[in-house]
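Attaching the record inline, Q. Sequence:
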Amino acid sequence: MYDFSRSVNSMHAEDIKTLMKQSSGTGLISFAGGMPNNDLFPIRQMDQIFRELPDDLKKLCFQYGPTTGYPPLVASLQKFLKNKDLPVDRNKILVTTGSLQAISIITQEFVNEGDVILTENPCFVGAISIFETYGAKIISIPIDKNGIDIKALKETLSHLKVKPKLFYVTPNFHNPAGIIYTEERRRALMEVLSGSDIILLEDDAYGDLYFDDRDASLVRPMKTYKNYDVEVIYTGSFSKIIGPGLRLGYMLTSPEIFDKAESIKQALDACTSNFMQILANQFLSEGYLEPYLSFLRSEYKERKEILNNNLIKHMPSQISWNEPKGGFYIWLKLPQHISSTEIFEKCLQKGVVFVTGRTFDPHNVKDDRLRLSFSNMAKEDIEKGVITMAEIIAQQLTRSKAKV
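Structure, as predicted:
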């Protein structure tokens, strides 16, 4: 028997292992994977970029790079984030091996075992797993269709005997809930945190994937807000807007936090892949990103509409959801007496998978929801998958009614 450390005992790490297996399983209709479809990747553009690289840059692809990031990519990111009105002049960018590493670095920088972290409920399972790994005490705040429940947040803060170190939020096309925080709710959150010394960790993996250009203004980062005494660390990712295989993310943060984060990253992996950073930089600097984002927005909007229309057509009336304005997900609400885990087990037997609600509950309890991703499956499979789920849910509803 090995004497493992406590850090390997994250309940949600096991959920992630299962999720990755479900997402890549063959012969399944999978609504599980929160990832792009392989057919959407910009392979021709990337082929052209690499072919046209001068030999000195091709050689540099295979070399170590600065811990903080490949300097031309950092410069391209500064321009990209400045276009979002983010305060790049007063902050510094650290390139990370995916935005999950950024979340991990910040957690390691601030959190000791037993420290309190606030999260949303539901919450991105990858972040939950990190917080559990570092031994944090997670206290979750419910969200509704407009964002964080401000009343619940105030009540929670009023009863806490210790100050939370961080508050982790995903305000743009939330994973798993698919919602977007309203402007009113964002400002209310900043007002509550102002002067509290609680760091706001703003995770924005999906903000560029709105479906309608009229909604572009809705994804404004809270780190752009002025006149609030809140330390905001902003994280972003290339995983959803170019491809997760790049393993590229970044954080934008104050110089003092940046310096410690750089030291932690140096100890973790020395540097993020130069190969991928050089490709990503050329993709940004040569103007490929915006046309590609327009293509993705159109594709994901079409997939969302196919899924949403089939849910309307086939799901029992007791099932509800909010139609998202962007991102990858629709979050179904079941009657409280119906377990999404039970639904999942029966759907799996029929070759259809999704992610259960319990996976996204920081406390691993609440199970009356399920997450459907429309980003990673063939469009022609969506209706068949919905019909299977709807039939099984209807059967469960009938059985539960008979028991009553």
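The chain has a mean pLDDT of 94. The chain has two domains: 6-41+294-403, 43-285.

More tomorrow.
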